[in-house]
Amino acid sequence: MAVTIYDIADEAHVSIATVSRVFNEHPRVSEDTRRRVFRVAERMGYEPHTGAQSLARKGTNLVSAVVPVMTSFFFMEVLRGAQGGLDGSPYDLLVYPSRTFSGVDAQLGRALQRGRSDGLLLVSVRPTPDRVRRLQATSQAVVLVDDAHEAFDSITVDSRWGGRVAVEHLIERGHERVGLLLPVPGTTPGDERLAGYHDALAAAGREPDPDLVVSADWHHDLQGFTRFAGYRAMQVLLDRFADRPAQRPTAVFVAADIMAFGALRAAHEAGLRVPGDLDVVGFDDVDASAYLGLTTLHQPMVEMGQLATEKLRRRLDDPGAPPSHTVFAPRLVVRETTGGAATAPSA
Amino acid sequence: MAVTIYDIADEAHVSIATVSRVFNEHPRVSEDTRRRVFRVAERMGYEPHTGAQSLARKGTNLVSAVVPVMTSFFFMEVLRGAQGGLDGSPYDLLVYPSRTFSGVDAQLGRALQRGRSDGLLLVSVRPTPDRVRRLQATSQAVVLVDDAHEAFDSITVDSRWGGRVAVEHLIERGHERVGLLLPVPGTTPGDERLAGYHDALAAAGREPDPDLVVSADWHHDLQGFTRFAGYRAMQVLLDRFADRPAQRPTAVFVAADIMAFGALRAAHEAGLRVPGDLDVVGFDDVDASAYLGLTTLHQPMVEMGQLATEKLRRRLDDPGAPPSHTVFAPRLVVRETTGGAATAPSA
DNA sequence: CTGCTCGTTGAAAGCGCTTTCGCTCACCGC
DNA sequence: GCGGTGAGCGAAAGCGCTTTCAACGAGCAG
Fold first, then answer.
1. Where does A34-175 show beta strands of DSSP type E?
2. Is B188 exposed, middle or buried (0-12, 13-18, 19+ CB in 10 A)?
3. Does residue B345 carry a pLDDT above 70?
4. Residue A125 maps to a domain
5. How many CB atoms within 10 Å of residue B103?
6. What is the pLDDT of residues A100-125, one digit of tens each?
7. Which residue in chain A is spatially nearest to B262 when comparing CA positions?
């Protein structure tokens, strides 16, 4: 049997109330008994039972993060920021990872169980009506990261604006025909980046050409956010212009770095030099992007994670406050794939 | 106030004992009341309080996984296997990620708290004397993955043998001088792979040359398992032979794929063609390896995760059983960096 | 010396659940 | 008609902790 508060109360000749006070840093305990209790507790290897604690207090001091982990880098960075934001607070972070987007609901269910945690961080989890219903029924504080809903605090990156910046960068470099590779239809980032693409075209007074746009139809469980999907999408795009090379896009905006890696490979296999024959811009700035010299839009992942926990803590303090929405602007990072200078890898 | 078992007992005109029985699938409940209770519970949105449950039962039905550096594909795959191994069991997986190797102890402390979980999966966590002490003091079941200790169940890959296979592959390809790039000194995989390197040299009747071996001295918090560490290590290696090109190694075994990526970049920057001027073999077979055509040693990550949970469950059933140790043999995957055929990316 | 205050402690009432024990009430065979 | 059986259920005792309330005694002013 594990040692309980009673055992150490007996040994230290105090009541369990006092032991509890010692461990909760209650001010009204004499220095004497405090030390005695600590000594006994240490000797007996006491450790409070978290279940009993969360029952007696009405809180767990835990924050759950539900994350679909496909390209782990983005999530890890966000989680890193979240961990940091929790430092110095009484809260700990618990992670419910899901390998696929569809597995998210199961993990969400677990995280939502009463007594599991006080707050919920949803990263890249689209707030479907069903999920919104479940989230509203819970008493936990909820913060959305990388997606938004008016009912909850949220932190997002302005994907649309980023898409526009990406395409404008390509237009400025003189490209007449700019392709676009997207994940499977219906994702929030995908839709937004597509809109940004159109914005840039419109601002430049150009007509959109559907032939220049390819949506992924592979790896649906990962929403097409894969190297392979990017690889195939690029092949499809190039195939479309196999018989009319003059029309071929000379630049491509790929909606996610991970897809861009596959796209680059397909381009190389097709004998295209990047840059030169083809310029490529990605989105996300994952760790391998710097290494591969990919021009992309950088998302402030660590900052997003950190801010997320700050919002969470604020909401835990004041559940009634109106939801707040923060939108970060992504930053264009020019590297080799659009003629930038090569840099030594740092990671 | 959240709805408790009492509320639904009132509403359904039964005792709380019956409600509890319904939710625990106790056989001695009439079909009638079972349905009634379920209906009421659903209507009121009841959900058991996990803390109270774990207090009353003596178990949480949770398994904690403590993993350093989830940036790495390796951990994700292991976790995927672990999730799979838990499917159909009453256990859920909880993840305590740590960005650095040193952060592991803090996470371990949290996971070890009484009432957090029933079992512990330690992935790539070296069993230091201090950790062993803590792990032996806990009543949780413990399984080590990617490291071993005689006191606990463990699952490892034979790194030494893998290192030998890697180097023998290079020797067979006719290389006289084979370099070795290692993480920071003192890691279990690093030491083992170094031993395998020596094994292969000895078997071929060659003298080891310390000039051919470089240990990382960068990114200590990640034990040098980074692109950058590999990049710099390769530079150091090449620098050593800048004034005597004839002695330069024509092949390099890099102790981790992630380091190999950096090493490849350094090689390219030095104007070396791979393969041709330099052959490279990595270790791990992470997702980007196939994409970059890196010859490497594949570890059965998913299988390891799955087996880990199986051992965990077995141990939970029978805490007294003697520890069992499983060693997987890594499999050589020949790709472009040692002259293998190019393959289309699948991920 | 009396009456207070204040720092320190203990008793006890929960927190929400599981589970043992035992009761009640058919239903059975004899 | 009677004891025996077993299905279905409730009462109540925990599980290990927090927190309120009250008690106690020492120290202080009057």
1. 62-68, 92-98, 119-123, 141-145, 153-157
2. middle
3. no
4. no
5. 17
6. 778 899 999 999 999 999 999 999 99
7. A345
Q: What's the average model confidence in pLDDT over A85-110? A: 88
Residues 276-305 of B with CB under 8 A from A: 287-288, 291
Nearest to A291 among B71, B261, B291 (CB): B261
Residues A51 and A164 in one domain: no
Number of domains in chain B: 2
Domain of A216 in residue numbering reads as 159-300+331-338
Question: What is the C-alpha to C-alpha distance for residues B222 and B35, in angstroms, rounded to an integer?
Answer: 54
Element (DSSP H or E) covering residue B100: none
Question: For residue A229, what is the nearest residue in chain B, using CA coordinates?
Answer: B347
Q: Distance, angstroms, CA B33 to C1' D8? A: 10
Q: Fill in the amino acid letter for A198.
A: H
Q: Which two tokens stand for residue B264?
A: 């490849």
Which residue approaches D12 most closely, CA to C1'? B17
Task: Indicate whether B307 belongs to any domain.
Answer: no
Decide if B184 is inside a domain: yes
Q: Taking CB atoms and an 8 Å cutoff, what residues of chain A touch B288?
A: 227, 261, 288
pLDDT above 90 as % of chain B: 79
Examine the fold and report which residue of A15, A36, A58 is the final residue of a domain before the chain moves on.
A58
pTM of the model: 0.87
> Which residues of chain A from 5 to 24 reach within 8 Å of chain B, CB to CB?
none
B49 shares its domain with B166? no
Residue B344's pLDDT band (cuts 50, 70, 90): low
- The CATH number for A6's domain is 1.10.260.40
Looking at residue A222, its pLDDT comes to 86
The whole-number average pLDDT for the span B312-322 is 92
A51-74 pLDDT, tens digit each: 999 999 999 999 999 998 766 678
Does the beta-carbon distance from A95 to B95 stay under 8 Å?
A: yes
In a domain, B112, yes or no: no
Residue with the larger pLDDT of the pair B252 and B27: B252
From A58, A82, A97, give the residue that closes a domain: A58
Residues with CB under 7 A from strand D: A 1-2, 4-6, 16-17, 20-21, 23-24, 46-49, 52-53, 55-57; B 13-18, 27-30, 32-33, 52, 55-56, 58, 114
Decide: A227 and A195 in contact? Cβ < 8 Å. no
Which of A52-66, A259-273, B59-73 shows the lowest per-residue confidence on average (mean pLDDT)? B59-73
pLDDT at residue B342, rounded to an integer? 73
Q: How far is CA B196 from CA A29, A51, B296, in A?
A: 59, 47, 14
C9 C1': nearest CA residue: A18
